[in-house]
Design goal:
Membrane topology: Multi-pass membrane protein
Helix content: 55-70%
Keywords: Membrane, Transmembrane, Transmembrane helix
Order of helices and strands: EEHHHEHHHHEHHH
Strand content: 5-15%
Number of domains: 2
Number of strands: 4
Radius of gyration: 23 Å
Pfam family, one: RDD
Organism: Cardiobacterium hominis
Main location: membrane
């Protein structure tokens, strides 16, 4: 997950909203899981129909029910589960409107009607190319419905506010470059005004959705002080 994949949108009230776009690989993995669930469901349906009836009637019923299942699976889950299917849930993904508002029933219907256009032999390459080249990682159905797929926010544990000068370890693994950046931020913060620190920390707002600007700066400083102490002890 890169900060370059962040999508920023200002709502009509002027409030800046942010989300992290799902990459094509994560979306493909979620789709694979959903298709596996559909395949198993179709197999069970075929077995049940073969036991209950025989001949052309059962084949016609199976074809009709299979169409309803395949199309209804994505539409109903995305509509009723607020943009989440079982596959997306497993990959921590969610479909939302491109303005970062909740997905509407009409958008869920549109993107899933057009999903099958993406799968047609003549359009499959076009659909895949559109997803890869789109700046918002949108397939054709997303473009038409005005939707994007994002990483869902992980549940956040309640955290107490940090006190000035407090030291705290970072909550996620950091590369050496990221550690150095936090240590430099902590050193820089001691000699600069909070407004400048808020500006410098703004790109990390996506990774810290539950913190306001002041709390974000406070935590970055605490993590930097912690890393400076660890660096001095090694």
């Amino acid at each position: 997950m890169l900060l370059d994949d962040a999508l920023h949108v200002a709502n009509p009230e002027g409030v800046q909203l942010a989300a992290v776009l799902a990459d094509p690989l994560s979306r493909a993995q979620a789709l694979l899981l959903d298709m596996l669930i559909i395949a198993v469901s179709l197999y069970v349906l075929a077995v049940l129909l073969s036991l209950l009836s025989a001949g052309l009637a059962s084949q016609g019923i199976f074809t009709a029910l299979a169409f309803v299942l395949v199309w209804g699976y994505f539409f109903l889950f995305e509509w009723l589960w607020r943009g989440v299917t079982p596959g997306k849930r497993a990959l921590n993904l969610q479909v939302i409107s491109a303005d970062l508002m909740p997905l509407s029933a009409a958008q869920a219907a549109w993107r899933n009607v057009l999903r099958y256009l993406d799968w047609l032999p003549g359009f499959f390459g076009v659909g895949a190319l559109a997803l890869v080249l789109s700046p918002k990682n949108q397939r054709l159905g997303d473009w038409m419905a005005g939707t994007v797929v994002i990483f869902r926010r992980a549940p956040q544990m309640a955290v107490r506010p940090l006190q000035p000068g407090e030291v705290s370890p970072p909550p996620w693994r950091l590369s050496r470059q990221e550690q150095r950046g936090l240590m430099d931020f902590a050193a820089y913060a001691d000699a600069h005004h909070e407004a400048r620190l808020v500006e410098l920390s703004a790109p990390l707002a996506v990774k810290m959705p539950d913190c306001d600007a002041r709390e974000r700066v406070q935590r970055l400083r605490a993590w930097g002080r912690y890393l400076r102490g660890m660096d001095g002890a090694t």
